[in-house]
Amino acid sequence: MINIIFYHPTFDSKLWIDGINKRVPQANIRAWHDGDTQPADYALVWQPPREMLMSRTRLKGIFALGAGVDAILMQEQRQPGTLPPGVPLLRLEDTGMSLQMQEYALATVLRYFRRMDEYQLLQQQKQWRPLTPHQHDNFTIGIMGAGVLGSCVAEKLVGMQFQVRSWSRSAKEIPGVKSYFGDDQLHDFANDCKMLINLLPNTPQTAGILNKSLFEHLQEQAYLINIARGMHLVEGDLLRALDSGQVAAATLDVFVEEPLPGMHPFWSHPRVSMTPHIGANTLPEQAMDNIAANIVAIEEGRRPAGLVDLDRGY
Questions:
Q1: First and final C-alpha spacing in the chain
Q2: Is omega for the bond preceding 80 within 30 degrees of 0, making it cis?
Q3: List of residues 6+ apart from 10 with CB closer than 8 A
Q4: What sequence ranges are listed for the domain D-isomer specific 2-hydroxyacid dehydrogenase NAD-binding (predicted)?
């Protein structure tokens, strides 16, 4: 019998318990509650209480119920022992998130490329004024992050005949994309980009990377799309870049503080578009397929997908 404990502050636990049981019939999965010290082989979690995992050193794997693991790693920093030492941490790989990110990125890129945001402002002012269209050959799109999500977005944009380049912490190759990596190549990557799309993992090394220094290397009147994490963006630097015209407009799905406080200037800024962290949601059916396959792999002695390097943070 494989014992599995489940905790998520908002997900329907019955849906997940039934779904995992269907996929792993030999599993006994239960919703964890305070005081539950019964044996467990695996844990499925999102923002788990410290006492849920801290003493469970015999776990074979902890599955974070999202593409990013920064939330649980930050919990470990704040409350050491949240993650029991030596237990593998796994993140969901793709599970339908790539398609959602492609949809979000493509919709936003085309909105700016075809200047629909500006036409909306002109409509509000009752102005009938055709604008000079952007051209593909001088509308270079830079994607920050070349993992599963970044690669999928890049490939979709290449298929739309955009000039695409990528930057990542380590060397990556994406067909049709000019690749940059490492701190030394960051500004070369940003030079002359008309648009930045941020899909980086949230690590101490990437916090605050969307800042004044980076914005200054973009084309004037550039665009920013942040669909990774709010901690990547220095919010004051973006507001100043918008006011100076260095950045023409920004679409933000993630924020340092969520929900965004009601007095925050992003709410009323005419060149900021916002969504409430909906760029890519965890899709239960695809996520459970991924988790079940990984449990089987671990039980059979194979390497699972999505194993997190705790030192790198992803």
A1: 30
A2: no
A3: none
A4: 107-279
Hey, which residues are catalytic here?
A: 229, 277
255 closest CA partner among 277, 223, 270: 277
- CA dist 193 and 138 (Å) reads 9
pLDDT digits (tens, 9 = 90+) for 201-219: 999 999 999 999 999 999 9
Query: What residues contact 57, with CB distance under 8 A and at least 6 apart?
Result: 84, 85, 86, 87
Q: Which of 193, 161, 195, 164 is nearest to 179 (CA)?
A: 164
Q: Is the pLDDT of residue 67 over 80?
A: no
Q: What pLDDT band is residue 32 in, cutting at 50, 70 and 90?
A: very high
The percentage of the chain sitting over the pLDDT mark of 70, rounded to a whole number, equals 99
Residue with tokens 């499925």: 44
Please, how many CA atoms are within 13 Å of residue 93, restricted to the half-sphere of its CB? 15
The rounded distance, in Å, linking the Cα atoms of 81 and 56 is 10
CB of 173 closer than 8 Å to CB of 147: no
Alpha-carbon span 218 to 180, nearest angstrom: 15
**Cβ neighbours of 271 (radius 10 Å):** 17
Q: What CA–CA distance (Å, rounded) separates 237 from 253?
A: 17
